[in-house]
Amino acid sequence: MDLDSLVDTPRKQAMLGISVAFMIIFPAYFAVMPMLIDDDLMASSSGGGPSGEWVVRFEETSITLQDPVNLGDGESHDTFFDLESDLMIGYVQVVVACNDNDDLTPGFSDAADVASDVSGVNSGNFSDQSDSGLCQGDAVTLRWDVIPGYNGTEYTASDMSENEIRAQWDDMGFARGTWAATITADVSSSPGIGPLNDNDEDYDITWTAMTFTLSLEPVVEL
Ligand SMILES: [Ca+2]
Ligand SMILES: [Ca+2]
Q1: How far apart are alpha carbons 202 and 183 in whole angstroms?
Q2: Domains: count for the chain
Q3: CA of 194 to the centre of ligand 1 (A)
Q4: Which ligand is nearest to the CA of 72?
Q5: Is 43 inside a domain boundary?
């Protein structure tokens, strides 16, 4: 087949012209197309996700355990909080509340001494804490941040990918296990004898683990 037989009619000339045009246009199209696609979208296919602005929200659900106890002066109570969750855990805390209102005269408020035992908690390098406080509301609060800086407040992240944000709020599986604390009563009563004298106190012990799921919403500039 020689060139003349390919172009010996106007129709064949037109067909050849179209074929040549496509041979030129297609390679050019595929060479140029990647340059037209946003760099961030190309990066997403490799796993990093697009970087940009995100509204980060924490949809929180708390796990709580109430462990009320009545104690006399110097008596102790061990309290345990078995914690398991498939969700992320932001923090764990124990609050010991008491309200001493059974003294004949003011000025003899009872108190709570609280000391934790985190030896039964999986990993995380949590440190034991202890504190004392008067029975006028929340006497003692001990709190452990499972994820550093966690406060559950919505914010806007800039120049970060979805994966980077999720990594920042990953609890690494820490904080599961048995949290424990010992509460010791310090009952103070006004001088004198009699059945009306203050000789005990009610302590409300509340354990809380704040779990959450992340909600990420890209900020789209219109
Ligand atoms: Ca008292
Ligand atoms: Ca009391």
Answers
A1: 11
A2: 2
A3: 14
A4: 2
A5: no
Please state the length of the chain: 222
Whose atoms come closest to the Cα of 191: which ligand?
1
Core vs surface per residue 125-160: b (16+ CB within 10 A) or e: ebeebeeebbbeeebbebebbbbeebeeeeeebeeb
Give the environment of ion ligand 1: residues with CB less than 5 A. Answer: 100, 103, 108, 110, 188, 198
Residue 25, in any domain of the structure:
yes
Report how far ligand 2's centroid is from the alpha carbon of 102 (Å): 5
Nearest ligand to the C-alpha atom of residue 99: 2
pLDDT tens digits for range 3-59: 566 677 777 777 767 676 667 665 565 565 555 554 444 444 444 577 889 999 999
**What ligand has the least distance to the C-alpha of 102?**
2
Q: What is the pLDDT of residues 117-144, one digit of tens each?
A: 999 998 778 999 999 999 999 999 999 9
Does residue 46 sit within a domain? no
Residue 83 lies in a domain: yes
Q: Which domain holds residue 176?
A: 52-218
Instruction: Say what the pLDDT of residue 156 is.
Output: 97
Task: Assign residue 135 the CATH number of its domain.
Answer: 2.60.120.380
- 139 Cβ neighbours under 8 A, 6+ residues apart: 96, 97, 98, 111, 112, 114, 132, 133
Region 194-216 average pLDDT: 92
Say whether both 66 and 160 belong to one domain. yes
- Is the pTM higher than 0.85? The answer reads no
Same domain, 142 and 209: yes
Q: Are residues 200 and 94 in the same domain?
A: yes
Distance 141 CA to ligand 2 centre (A): 20
Q: How far is the CA of 109 from the centre of ligand 1 (A)?
A: 4
